[in-house]
Design brief:
five-stranded antiparallel β-sheet; 17 helices
């Protein structure tokens, strides 16, 4: 309106004059262009008006959009930045100070050498070269890089950098826009995990026990090298095996049964452990007995994803158990078959834990009447003082042969006997293995 008022005073302001015009439908943005003329012999102005409302609204929307994204960039924890085709920063958001300790203006003056370690700069350049063909074709390419950058205090920080190619309205490459997020803690966690995995891998690969993992269908996904010592297979060969190739049918059935019983615990995400003794095939066709400790594996949502196990060779232990079982069978057979009354007594409790048929026949007591009873309960010793002397001598020398004494049987008779005994170990406990030979008739 100022320009219009000046024209009415005879001045001739040049150019166009945008202003808002009140109409019955509201306000309009218009642009006026003034032409000075004479009208009926007097100076006048001819004004041409152009409706600028749509353009002004578009400009305002653009301004608001730019302001919105500027606010977003300026208040983001990530550093938002733009990079020109010459690889120089044209914008850096304030977050660059939080991440690298430099002001945005300072960051925009830095070169790649100033901001990145040599290794990261090389990786950055190689990535730009890799995507260059796609950029030339105008593709909406996005790259993600982990870059080590310099901090103002002289240290370095790790950032995850996401960059995207920018194009102008004509579709011509205009530079890059990116966002950098600090990932120092994540890198530390990754490094700690790497070291932990390396440590456990070294442990797995240098122990005699076989460490393995498998999926929920028991397809092996990892096998430590010690499988070769156990079964004569390489780790690669063992991973490719099906259960039928590594376990005998009976052992495979035992494993399936244990897995079925624990299925409910696995669904609940419980840390249930299974122990399995199994007979496994070796590459040469022989078998070995193994003992495996098996635990379930879960993902972050507690979903059952597989198993981890530790398997060791127990062939020697099984052979020893078999020999022991055979020995015990022989002992039991001899114990039951001997004609002399024989008993086994636990030293700590003094209770009789086993007798042979000859003792039942000689004393008149049944098996059930004697088991878990002591000699005192049955009043077996005719002379309890002599009993104490015999036991003391037995504990001193752990062996006693044909010691003359007298014992009382069920009907009250006192019989002359030769008492022999020995201290034996059964498991962790000590017992007295005793035998008597009745010499009453001989003494008469």
């Amino acid at each position: 309106m100022d320009r219009y008022a000046r024209s009415l005073k005879g001045e001739k302001p040049e150019g166009t004059n945008p202003f808002r015009l009140v109409t019955k439908d509201g306000l309009l943005w218009v642009e006026g262009q003034t032409v000075f003329i004479e009208w009926q012999g007097k100076p006048a102005t001819l004004v041409f008006l152009t409706n600028l409302t749509e353009r002004k609204e578009t400009e305002e929307a653009l301004r608001q959009s730019e302001e919105k994204y500027r606010l977003l960039a300026d208040n983001s924890l990530d550093c938002i930045w733009t990079l020109g085709p010459d690889l120089k920063l044209t914008y850096a958001s304030p977050a660059v100070k939080r991440i690298r300790g430099v002001e945005p203006e300072e960051a925009m003056k830095q070169t790649l050498d100033d901001s990145m370690t040599p290794e990261s700069k090389l990786r950055f350049i190689e990535e730009l070269e890799r995507i260059s063909p796609d950029v030339e074709e105008g593709k909406n390419i996005v790259s993600v890089l982990e870059i080590e950058q310099y901090h103002k205090n002289g240290s370095t920080v790790w950032v995850e950098m996401v960059l995207r190619a920018l194009y102008n309205e004509a579709g011509q490459f205009h530079g890059f826009i990116g966002a950098s997020r600090e990932i120092g803690k994540r890198k530390e966690a990754q490094e700690a995990l790497r070291q932990s995995e390396e440590k456990y891998r070294m442990l797995a690969e240098n122990t005699d026990d076989v460490i393995w993992t498998a999926d929920t269908d028991f397809h092996f996904t990892y096998m430590s090298p010690s499988i070769f010592k156990l079964r004569g297979l390489t780790a690669e060969e063992a991973i490719l095996e099906e259960l039928a190739q590594s376990f005998t049918p009976e052992s495979r059935q035992r494993l399936s049964h244990k897995i079925e019983l624990a299925a409910g615990d696995f669904e609940k995400g419980l840390k249930t452990s299974l122990t399995l003794e199994a007979e496994q095939y070796c590459k040469d066709g022989s078998t070995r007995w193994t003992e495996s400790l098996i635990r379930p594996l879960y993902d972050n949502s507690s979903k059952h994803t597989g198993y981890i196990g530790v398997t060791r060779d127990i062939s020697e232990r099984k052979q020893a158990e078999q020999r022991l079982q055979a020995s015990e069978s022989k002992f039991s057979a001899a114990f039951m078959a001997t004609s002399d009354p024989t008993a086994i007594t636990e030293i700590e409790s003094g209770k009789i834990v086993d007798i042979n048929p000859a003792l039942e026949l000689w004393t008149g007591y049944s098996y059930n009447e004697v088991i878990n009873k002591s000699a005192a309960d049955l009043n077996l010793w005719a002379d309890t003082k002599q009993q104490a002397q015999i036991l003391e001598k037995l504990f001193q020398q752990e062996d006693l042969i044909d010691y003359e004494t007298r014992l009382r049987i069920k009907d009250g008779q006192v019989r002359d006997v030769l008492f022999s005994a020995r201290v034996i170990d059964i498991g962790p406990n000590k017992y007295i293995f005793s035998r008597v030979h009745d010499v009453t008739e001989i003494k008469k």
